[in-house]
Amino acid sequence: MAARSADTIAGVEEMVGGSPVVLAPSTSLGHLGALPVLVGDEDAVLYDIQVHASVQGALPELRLRGVPCEAVRHNRLDRLEERIAVLARKHARVFYLCDGIYSMHGDVLDVQGLYGLLDRQPSLFAYVDDAHGASWSVRFGAPSDEPTSSRVIVSAERTQTAFK
Length: 164
Ligand SMILES: Cc1ncc(COP(=O)(O)O)c(C=O)c1O
Known about the structure:
By secondary structure, the protein is α/β, with parallel strands linked by helices.
């Protein structure tokens, strides 16, 4: 079984162009497993107020550890940048949690804007729940055709995308 899992992971890593991959039985369990490991005690978290509930489900554990977790108005990258600038003075890294395509209204992340922010704000890391978007429009399930940044973590959902 272990060898088979390793093969599966290697296969998916190849599909996504060599980026490291973690597999989880569901998207929600992926968030609950990944976010407490990715986010350190010295970090801060900003999240889009409409990010999927399964992402927000990981926040109580982070808050219990003393990690500040603040909501940002929906898709307002200008507000996001203001808060990153403030939080980056005291925190090693600032994570932004968002969706690639939002479940309620089907509106999308401003991917170009996010990459601009990543360029300007070196402490920013983006965690994108792309359950509805991965593999929908772009090869390998990347969130856009922009170059992949090692500071972008994408959560992809096998059953809701072209992977199925
Ligand atoms: C954007 C988004 N993220 C996460 C989930 C949860 O997925 P799962 O049922 O695999 O935990 C859903 C469910 O529809 C979703 O729409």
